[in-house]
Every structure is written in structure tokens, then in C-alpha cells.
Write a structure and sequence with these properties.
This protein is an alpha+beta fold and about 150 residues long. The protein folds into 2 domains: about 55 residues; about 80 residues, K homology (KH) domain (GMP Synthetase, Chain A, domain 3, 2-Layer Sandwich). The protein is built from 3 helices and 7 strands. Strands 3-4-5 form a 3-stranded antiparallel β-sheet, with no helix packed on it. A hairpin with a 2-residue loop joins β6 and β7. The radius of gyration is 19 Å and the shape is globular. The termini are far apart. The mean pLDDT is about 95.
Length: about 150
């Protein structure tokens, strides 16, 4: 696969991240902590929450949207392209029947209209290469266990 003029060689890397969610107060307001930073996840009032933060699926979508925007900014800066603003909207449609869930994610990339067509096309390609996008396109293995 080519990324710019650099060929990416098959290499094995292991990356680990962790986030801790603590729910100990309001019905659903949950403190999320990672790397010494906090944010709140919650549910809207009509779902029994206090609406103090993003819903969990909104956090999930925001990870993909922000990763896409950051990747595009890094690429444009590396190419020294003048791209004053980058907008990324990620939408999700979920259909559930029993325990089966079919999820469709749609990524809308908003770039300046006066950006040359070849740069717009290349940035759309790069949008599909952000680390979160690649994670979602590959096998994900989930497990759950009780803390000791």
C-alpha cells in the first residue's frame, strides 16, 4: 500500500490503550478517564439520564470522526497543502433483530470547495486510512471478565 511516496512494509506492532469508565453517582452519568483526562458520558433525560455528556454511541462515532480529521490534517500539512478547514461527520444506522445488529457507518468529509480536485480526491482516500477506520475494518476480538 502506498501512503504518499512511502511504501508501508508489513511490520508487526502492538499498541495498547485503556480507558476507565466509573459510574458512581447520577443514574447514568459516567466519568471516563484516560491519561489523566476526564470526560462524561450520559444518556438524555428522556432515557433516564441527566444529559451531562455524550451518549456512548456518540463517543464511538466521535472517535472515528476526530481520527479522520486529524489524519487528514497531518497528511495535508505534510504535503504542505493549504487546507484551512476540515469537517468530518460520521453517521450511524443500526438495525437490530433479536441479538443480531447490522450497523452501517457513513463518513462525510467536508473540504474547502476551492481545493484542487486531485487534492480533494487524495484526501478522501486518506480518510479511509485513519487508524480508527482501519481498526473497524479488521477483526475485533471482544472479551469481558471480572476484576480481581
Amino acid at each position: 500500500m502506498l501512503f504518499g511516496n512511502t511504501e508501508l512494509h508489513a511490520m508487526s506492532t502492538i499498541t495498547e490503550r485503556s480507558v476507565t469508565a466509573t459510574l458512581d453517582g447520577a443514574p447514568y452519568a459516567t466519568r471516563i478517564t484516560t491519561r489523566g483526562k476526564d470526560l462524561i458520558a450520559d444518556e438524555p433525560v428522556d432515557h433516564g439520564g441527566t444529559d451531562l455528556g455524550f451518549r456512548p454511541h456518540e463517543l464511538f462515532l466521535s472517535g472515528l470522526a476526530s481520527c479522520t480529521a486529524i489524519t487528514l490534517r497531518m497528511y495535508a500539512d505534510r504535503k504542505q497543502w493549504s487546507v484551512p478547514s476540515i469537517g468530518v461527520t460520521v453517521s450511524m444506522k443500526r438495525e437490530q433483530e433479536g441479538s443480531k445488529v447490522d450497523t452501517h457507518l457513513s463518513i462525510l468529509v467536508d473540504l474547502p470547495k476551492d481545493l484542487p480536485a486531485d487534492q480533494r480526491d487524495r484526501l478522501l482516500q486518506i480518510a479511509k486510512a485513519c487508524p480508527v477506520h482501519r481498526t473497524l475494518e479488521n477483526p475485533i476480538h471482544l472479551s469481558a471478565r471480572l476484576a480481581p
